[in-house]
Design brief:
With about 325 residues, the protein is an alpha/beta fold. It is about 35% helix and about 15% strand. Helix 1 runs parallel beside helix 12 and helix 5 runs parallel beside helix 8. The longest helix is centred in the middle third of the chain and has 20 residues. The two termini are about 20 Å apart.
Length: about 325
């Protein structure tokens, strides 16, 4: 295809405070034709659907079925790290058959997500949430209690399920603390920076892990991956973390294990459903710490999204390999 004067469909949202980023995108695409739509306009109907069918490139959150129907599309760039709607055999096969490329924005979120995880891992190791609970309630001087709970990370074992760009950065950030990180993924590429094992052999490592980090995407294979049987393999001093997708964890089973002291703590940035209802018992579960899907957030998030797309656009027009390619 001619990679000049591209038609670019975009429903990446820009808030009023992100006008600078929006204007930068408009200017940076140059002679290419850019059509901006609201986030709710995902290419299924109206002018958004008409232009998506004509477009060469899509940037944002297009509907997967609409993408399949858009025969002219040569490249789809998602503004998220997640790609659940596209992660099925039918969509992958369609994109492969028409030689269309699918990329996501994992690179945008690797640093904030890795730092978010590092903060929680370190804070749990040093009993900071427990100290905050005491400050907010009894305000007693619990020196012995907190010192006895505190741990160092040296020689502890961490498992990272869904080892990719976020996992690699997390391993780098935690390396100075002497923790032994092991990645878990479907296929081992051989160029990983730490030891990596496959999903098939991961269960035998669970009883030895001090930290289990879940960055799994949501797809038919991962839904309910951390069920009662798998979570029960963790030792009572282990901590569980989820910044992947809420549907990959059976939350009732996790809550039961926490309540019975079978797992030391859990940190959840994602849940199922989202938002987590205010009356959900997880909010009150002991040693369960929840943040509302903010691990990937940063004050320059939109700038980083746009910059990542534009770098891939440069690569696309020049025929270079694209970053964060999925298909």
């Amino acid at each position: 295809m001619n990679r000049e004067n591209l038609k670019i469909w975009c429903n990446n949202p820009f808030s009023p405070t992100q006008k600078k980023d929006r204007d930068f995108l408009i200017k940076a695409v140059g002679e290419n034709r850019l059509m901006l739509f609201e986030p709710a306009e995902n290419g299924r109907r109206g002018e958004s659907a008409d232009f998506l069918r004509q477009a060469d490139v899509a940037f944002g959150t297009p509907d997967a079925e609409a993408v399949v129907r858009a025969e002219n599309l040569s490249w789809v760039h998602l503004n998220s790290a997640g790609y659940a709607a596209f992660d099925n055999d039918a969509v992958r096969a369609h994109l492969s058959n028409k030689k269309a490329i699918l990329t996501n924005s994992s690179t945008v979120y690797s640093e904030p997500c890795a730092q978010h995880l590092s903060a929680m891992i370190l804070s749990l190791a040093r009993s900071l949430p427990a100290a905050l609970d005491i400050q907010r309630t009894s305000r007693t001087w619990e020196t012995r209690y907190l010192r006895a709970r505190a741990r160092t990370l040296n020689e502890q074992i961490g498992l990272i399920f869904g080892f990719g760009t976020i996992g690699r950065r997390l391993a780098e950030l935690l390396a100075p603390f002497g923790i032994k990180m092991i990645g878990v993924r479907r296929k081992i590429s051989g160029d990983e920076s730490i030891r990596v094992i496959t999903n098939d052999s991961a269960d035998e490592f669970l009883p030895r892990a001090d930290h289990v980090v879940n960055i799994l995407p949501e797809n038919p294979e991962t839904k309910g991956f951390f069920d009662a049987a798998r979570l029960s393999r963790l030792k009572s001093t282990a901590c569980f973390y989820n910044i992947g997708r809420g549907a990959t964890v059976e939350l009732d089973a996790l809550r039961t294990l926490l309540e019975n002291g079978k797992i030391a703590a859990a940190y959840l940035d994602v849940t199922s459903p989202e938002p987590l209802p205010p009356d959900d018992p997880l909010w009150r579960t002991k040693n369960c710490y929840i943040t509302p899907h903010v691990a990937g957030g940063a004050n320059d998030e939109k700038q980083r999204q746009v910059g990542h797309f534009l770098e891939n656009l440069r690569r696309f027009t020049s025929g270079e390999p694209l970053l964060d390619r999925i298909v």
